[in-house]
Design a protein that fits this description.
There is one protein chain. By secondary structure, the protein is of the alpha/beta class. It has a single domain, classed as Rossmann fold, CATH 3.40.50. Helix content is 37%, strand content 19%. Strands 3-2-1-4-5-6-7-8 form an eight-stranded mixed sheet, sandwiched between helices. A hairpin with a 2-residue loop joins strand 5 and strand 6. The protein is globular.
């Protein structure tokens, strides 16, 4: 109780909100700048179990933004590096690590066993796959993306609002070695953690049908309302076509 006292005093949170977090299981796909930041604050908040998925090893170029990976971790699997730090922060946490690429087959099995999926990926092919599997499995999907000083966050809830394909019918052009300020990734990852905590506790108003856009260079936040798109290939196949 002492560990979580400050958040439990938030109106409506209390012991029941903390119990809901403790009983929850969250899948974080990708342990880069977004996944590290989101995982850190989910662990600190008392989420009971985190499933961490990433196929890569820590490289020096990761260290400007991926805060769970330190200089001594270069060469280690990202799942191992992140898992160690999260357990050091909160020994009550249950961590499951999977050093593997996500595929349609393994992702279905992973998503079935969790309550919410958090997007820590860095490409739209992976994001579209997460979106589709979560929609078909009726699991919430918290999306985030960053580039330079720019960031975006939205929450996909299969029973309400648009999916990621509705919002982005076609992927934007992919860039090799996308420029990223570490603080941008940290902030967007924190926002993803906040969305996840709200969904798990039932508090607040998640970003369903809303795309939050951050311009850190001018320190400007903009909210864009989005709707389901008629003819969306994912929503239509899942029987939840847009209007």
């Amino acid at each position: 109780m002492e560990r979580y006292q400050r958040q439990m005093t938030i109106r409506g949170f209390g012991r029941e909100g903390q119990r809901r977090l403790e009983r929850s299981r969250v899948l974080v796909v990708g342990l880069g700048g977004l996944g590290c930041s989101a995982s850190l604050y989910l662990a600190a908040a008392g989420v009971g179990s985190l499933v961490l998925v990433d196929p890569q090893r820590v490289e020096p170029s990761n260290l400007n933004r991926q805060v769970l990976h330190w200089d001594r971790d270069v060469g280690k699997p990202k799942t191992e590096s992140a898992g160690e730090k999260l357990l050091a922060l909160n020994p009550q946490l249950v961590v499951e690590t999977r050093k593997e690429e996500i595929t349609a087959r393994n992702l279905v099995k992973l998503v079935e066993k969790v309550d919410i999926v958090v997007d820590g990926t860095d490409n739209y092919a992976a994001r579209y796959l997460l979106n589709e599997v979560c929609l078909r499995s009726h699991k919430p999907f918290v999306h985030g993306a960053v580039e330079g000083f720019l960031g975006q966050v939205t929450t996909i809830l299969p029973s309400r609002g648009p999916c990621l394909r509705c919002i982005f019918p076609r992927p934007p052009p992919e860039k090799k070695n996308t420029p990223v300020l570490g603080a941008t990734a940290g902030l967007v990852g924190c926002l993803e953690a906040m969305e996840t905590i709200k969904l798990l506790t039932g508090l607040g108003e998640p970003l369903i049908g809303r795309l939050l856009i951050l311009d850190g260079e001018s320190m400007h936040f903009e909210e864009v309302k989005v709707e389901r798109r008629a003819g969306c290939p994912v929503c239509s196949v899942s029987g939840r076509g847009g209007k």
